[in-house]
Amino acid sequence: MDVKAIVATAAEYGKKILASDILMDALVKAEVASKDVPKAGTQLQKIFSLAELVVEYANGNYTDVPTKAIGAAALAIVYFVSPIDLIPDFIPVIGKVDDALIAGLCWNMVDGDLKKFKDWQKAKNTDSTNA
Fold first, then answer.
1. What CA–CA distance (Å, rounded) separates 107 from 50?
2. How far apart are CA 89 and CA 95, in angstroms?
């Protein structure tokens, strides 16, 4: 599977994460994880920022991001929503560790690019409120 296909798939998941019950399920998952594994919830909540980045990239609204970064973000999203995990989520405590680990690793790979994206989002929101 090539990067464009992964990004397209992740963008679809990202849209669902940002606009549907998957978001609520993911928030609950992150909250439960933060109780079971304190830092896991924080890592899992980063998925939402990654989802925003992938969706804006896939829509062509924000393309100032390296392929490596968008690929890492896309893989994190696909892994997060996939029912197949290295450690199944239904296993108490450790079931969320792999999701948090993948989210954290991908976040570290794209941190600088994500900061630029967040700045772009703020500027875009400021422009739209001033218009």
1. 8
2. 4
| 109-127: pLDDT as tens digits | 898 999 999 999 999 888 7
Tokens of 79: 């892994």
What residue type is assigned to position 66 of the chain?
P
Distance CA 52, CA 16 (A): 11
**DSSP secondary-structure letter at 101?**
H
Q: Which CB contacts under 8 angstroms, 24+ apart, belong to 94-99?
A: 94/37, 96/29, 96/32, 96/33, 96/36, 96/37, 96/40, 96/44, 97/37, 97/40, 99/29, 99/33, 99/40, 99/43, 99/44
pTM: 0.67
Structure-token pair, residue 93? 């405590």
In this structure, what token pair is assigned to residue 12? 């679809």
